[in-house]
Amino acid sequence: MWTHVASELILTGACALPALVAWRQRAHLTALGFASISVAALLGAAVYAGLQDVASAHDTASFLAGRLGLLLIALRRFGSPRQVASTILACAVAFLVPAPVDLAVSMLALVAIVWRSRSPHGLLAMVGGLMFALAGLVVGTQGEWLDVPRVDLFHLSLATAALLWLKAGVAHAKRTPSGALP
Asked: Rounded to whole angstroms, how far apart are CA atoms 74 and 72?
């Protein structure tokens, strides 16, 4: 269905933008988190466009984005060896825990993303976090709402969240108290 392709492509672009900004800001983990969602969406668009050969890759990319995307965005960047070790441990745990625990980890990651984004645009970060949470907890991907496939609403909600986070500065490197980049 063309609406599925369109919503996936919108999500692809909406996550590619903050991924690029984060990469340029040396917030490499954040870039990888947004990129993981973008790649999964791009593969989803290909599947919905009829390229069934990439369905397995889409499933894998969606699993990785679901388990690691928010966690990587929340962690932001590598720093000390201790942060690298903590990041590796957090990602390993994200793969090993059952779905209810993964949901709790994702909710904690959302809180961390919003908390770290306290700025003049903190409200945008909060609304983005709320949009992300509502997409997963309320909208979902099965069925329809008013003849609109919920999977499309899900993808558009995530795209909106990503763009709100971009505006709120989530993709930017953490700044020191003096305002300079570390």
From this structure: 5
Provide the CA 120 distance to its chain's centre, in angstroms.
22
181 secondary structure, DSSP code? -
d(CA 96, CA 74): 19
Distance CA 177, CA 170 (A): 17
pLDDT one-digit tens code per residue, 34-48: 999 999 999 999 999
Residues 64-81 pLDDT 10s: 999 999 999 988 766 667
56 with 30: CB under 8 angstroms?
A: no
Q: How far apart are CA 43 and CA 182, in angstroms?
A: 35
Inform me whether the pLDDT recorded for 32 exceeds 70: yes
Tell me the whole-structure pTM to 2 decimals: 0.88
